[in-house]
Design brief:
This protein is of the alpha/beta class. The protein is about 25% helix and about 20% strand. Strands 18, 19, 20, 21, 22, 23, 24, 25, 26 and 27 form a ten-stranded antiparallel β-sheet that branches. An eight-stranded parallel β-sheet has the order 4-3-2-1-11-10-7-5. Strand 23 and strand 24 form a beta hairpin. Helix 4 crosses helix 14 and helix 8 runs antiparallel to helix 16. The N terminus is likely disordered.
Length: about 800
């Protein structure tokens, strides 16, 4: 989708992706070489100037470092792949907790465990007896809507909701709170803000974008950086502030809805649309920039020298360092995850690496530095930038993480003043799309039925990147300082003299005055969030059925829709009297009640304030809405949002659905059928029948009378490279009906071979269970993950009875070890 009010990009974006002849011309033009022309990019008023004392200190350290020390600074390793003891020998520049990584492998580890682990890494990094300089390690984390990895932290609305606020001053406060709560754990670096200008809402990271309008993104980016790092000349990098990382450079929002895809646009569009956030974030002093996984006109950004060096460093004068995304360097032409001099030579300063072979990356990079494949000047430039940031951030002076001024102040996590800011953000982010008959606000003293699967579900309202990477496998108890939307409504209703009742299924005995139904997307993050269409829940219409049931019973109904993007919800809009786009509000569900439920005065705490920062689709096939195109025709345009003074009535909407791709492309077998273009194949003694789990014939019953296998066979090979790189798993829901008499294994096959992982010891007769096998288990056995012909195979050497209800690719909090049996 596209809406534009930024520079000269209106003219450029008239040619963006779509169906018009102008679009076709633009697509042809965008096939040009992906080489930027730095002289065509504006000069930026960078506030962070070179400090002579800082530069002298950096030069003194650099002069005493060995080439081994220098190469170490270029590498950041996930804590799941390294131990503190490793840093006694390998003086690496940084560590991170990526995806599902956490202290002791426990994503629900209390805050003191995070601080304790950082102390251990820090202590190892500064232990030296050879007389060479001590360069402490720094820790990076994805604190993208609060300190979201830490149990008890304040979680703010995701960026899409913040964009609807139109409140840059509040954005700065949110950044400051996020920094303070991150600093309480000792961690000193946040991989935020995301300044993507998303153009196709099918992308699973849409909710990480403030807006499809580059002007809105630009108005927020600098403010968020100042909130995280402090303001230059005032509190810049003072205690309570952490290093920011602006991401993902550049064009990550233009990939046509595909994660890690290819943004095929002109340089003008790349600059004036996708570059908008950097125009304010970099002048505000952002200390790190993260190049994108994605490509520009066919060339991976992590290897694009014309942009990383030519534009970012030379033209714009960026003084900090660039940090790669998760193993993204391995996708650069001529590279692997363990060997990538081309990325360093293009302008990448620090690799982000996850996996067991980080020592190979170190050895290869060292070899290339010694051989001159990585020139000495480029190596020194990268290390100088890393040292500069560490000096500015106080890394050399602040001591152990636990000794720093804000460390250990765990009362800051979910502090009342922080929650108040988050609650204000929730109030301001809600967008009222429909209020026929003035159903809202709910009158004081009303009898309210609160229904829907999202009503009392903090994890669902928080979305992805909430304790766990994908935001899955969490419960309300895991948010001890949070409040569900139901809880907020209940408190507000009782305060106004009314009564609220929670019934997820919408059942009631006495007819309520009004029903508030909370529903929407279940949590997801990158990889698993991409969708083939914007239809809401194409395979499960139970939420719509609930709305229709209440409507048929004559109950005035308010829909509160939780989503990470605008979606085609015409049937749900028709079935509700009022409809609120709540996006992903985070842990402060009371902010929803503040706007929906009137107090004893007859007025709610606040009126609706939010205005759409993304256009809303009218048709199911509207994936890209370009306001500059003559065919631009959204259901709700950018900037739309009713208030209680508006008396507009929304007429019944068209519910026609053209035939297009739908469903979840990460599901291989679900609800009794395989994904399109595939079939179930058997060999040997396996027999297929159907059985029921949650619905009629929604599962497959397999009976192995002897050796045999059952697999999902693709019509054409599929590419699971990015999923494997992202540490996703093959996840199978199963129930053993007859104990195996032989060995059982699960596997994946490419065009020439198969790889299997044993499962026998996990197969006990009993209830339904789930097993998750990391895709890297198969990649490590030599499977060509870009040519997978069989993404699932279950083989047994003897008799076995087993039911299978779901097979999918996804994130798992407790995957099995590759060698498990």
């Amino acid at each position: 989708m596209m809406v534009l009010r930024f520079g000269t990009a209106c003219a450029a974006l008239a040619l963006m992706s779509g169906a018009s002849p102008a679009v076709a011309q633009q697509q042809a033009a965008s096939a040009a070489a992906a080489t930027a022309h730095p002289e065509q990019w504006p000069l930026l008023p960078m506030q962070l100037k070179r400090d002579a004392k800082v530069e002298a200190r950096v030069a003194a350290i650099l002069a005493k470092m060995s080439i081994e020390d220098k190469v170490g600074q270029l590498i950041q390793v996930d804590i799941a792949s390294i131990t503190p003891g490793d840093l006694e020998t390998y003086k690496l520049g940084s560590i991170l907790n990526g995806g599902n990584s956490a202290p002791n492998g426990d994503e629900f580890a209390p805050a003191p465990e995070w601080l304790k682990l950082f102390d251990a890494f820090y202590d190892a990094s500064v232990k030296r007896t050879d007389g060479r300089p001590v360069v402490p390690v720094i820790w990076g984390t994805d604190a993208v809507h609060g300190a979201n990895n830490i149990v008890g932290a304040t979680l703010f609305p995701h960026n899409i909701g913040l964009g609807a606020m139109r409140d840059p001053a509040l954005i700065k406060k949110i950044g400051a709170v996020t920094a303070a709560e991150t600093a309480a754990t000792g961690i000193d670096w946040s991989f935020a803000p995301t300044v993507a200008v998303v153009q196709d809402d099918r992308w699973g990271r849409t909710y990480e974008s403030y807006s499809e309008d580059p002007a809105i993104v630009a108005s927020y980016a600098g403010q968020m950086v100042e909130g995280i790092q402090g303001t230059i000349g005032q509190d810049f990098m003072k205690p309570g502030h952490v290093i920011a990382s602006v991401k993902h450079f550049l064009g990550d929002g233009g990939t046509g809805g595909h994660d890690q895809g290819d943004t095929r646009v002109s340089e003008t569009v790349l600059r004036e649309v996708h570059g908008a956030g950097y125009m304010t974030a970099l002048p505000a002093g952002a200390l790190t920039v993260m190049p994108s996984f994605s490509s520009w006109n066919g060339e991976k950004m992590t290897g694009n020298k014309s942009l990383l060096t030519g534009v970012l460093k030379d033209r714009w004068g960026f003084q900090g360092f660039t940090i790669g995304d998760w193993n993204a360097h391995g996708q650069v032409t001529g590279c692997t995850n363990e060997d990538c001099a081309p990325a360093i030579n293009a302008g990448l300063d620090m690799f982000m690496y996850s996996g067991p072979k980080w020592k190979e990356l170190y050895a290869n990079t060292l070899r290339e530095a010694k051989a001159g494949t990585i020139p000495a000047a480029r190596l020194d430039d990268a290390v100088r930038r890393i040292l500069r940031v560490k000096v500015i951030a106080g890394t050399f002076d602040n001591g152990r993480p636990s000794a720093r001024p804000m460390s250990g102040k765990f009362a800051l996590l979910g502090a009342p003043e922080h929650r108040a800011i988050a609650r204000q953000a929730v109030r301001e982010s809600l967008v009222l799309l429909k209020n026929n008959g003035g159903v809202l606000p709910v009158k004081p003293g009303a009898n309210i039925l609160v229904a829907g699967r999202g009503a009392d579900n903090i994890g669902q309202q928080a979305g992805g990147w909430s304790i766990t990477w994908q935001g899955t496998d969490v419960a309300n108890k895991d948010f001890p300082n949070g409040q569900s939307i139901w809880s907020g409504i209940d408190a507000a209703t009782r305060a106004a003299g009314g009564k609220a009742t929670l019934a997820v299924d919408g059942a009631f005995t006495a007819k309520p005055d009004v029903a508030i139904v909370v529903f929407g997307e279940t949590p997801y993050a990158e990889f698993t969030g991409d969708r083939p269409s914007l239809e809401y829940s194409p395979d499960d219409k139970s939420d719509l059925a609930l709305l229709k049931t209440l409507k048929a019973a004559g109950v005035p109904t308010v829909a509160v829709f939780l989503s990470g993007r605008p979606m085609w919800v015409n049937p749900e809009l028709n079935a509700a009297d009022a409809f609120v786009a709540a996006f992903l509000p985070g842990t402060e569900g009371g902010g929803v009640a503040d706007v929906l439920v009137a107090g004893k005065s007859g007025r709610p705490v606040a009126d609706f304030h939010g205005k759409l920062s993304f256009s809303w689709p009218k048709r199911i096939d509207q994936n890209v809405l370009n306001r500059t195109d003559p065919g631009y025709d959204p259901l709700f345009p950018i900037g739309f949002g009713l208030t209680y003074s508006d008396k507009a009535t929304l007429a019944r909407l068209d519910e026609t659905k053209p035939k297009i791709a739908a469903g979840d492309q990460n599901a291989l077998f679900v609800r009794g059928r395989v994904a399109g273009g595939a079939r179930i194949g058997t060999t040997g003694a396996a027999v297929q029948t159907r059985t029921d789990r949650s619905g009629q014939e929604d599962s497959l019953r397999l009976a192995y009378k002897g050796a045999g296998s059952v697999g999902i066979e693709q019509a054409m090979p599929i590419d699971l490279t990015r999923e494997s790189n992202g540490d996703l798993s093959l996840i199978v829901d199963y129930r053993v009906t007859a104990k195996p008499t032989g060995t059982v294994s699960v596997g994946i096959a490419d065009t020439g071979k198969s790889a299997m992982v044993p499962l026998t010891n996990r197969l006990a007769v009993g209830d339904w269970a789930t097993v998750a096998v990391p895709l890297r288990c198969f990649a490590n056995q030599g499977i060509a993950m870009n040519k997978v012909t069989k993404p699932f195979e279950l083989a047994s050497s003897g008799a076995l009875g087993i039911d299978v209800s779901s097979i999918r690719i996804g994130s798992a909090t407790t995957p099995i070890a590759c060698g498990a049996k």
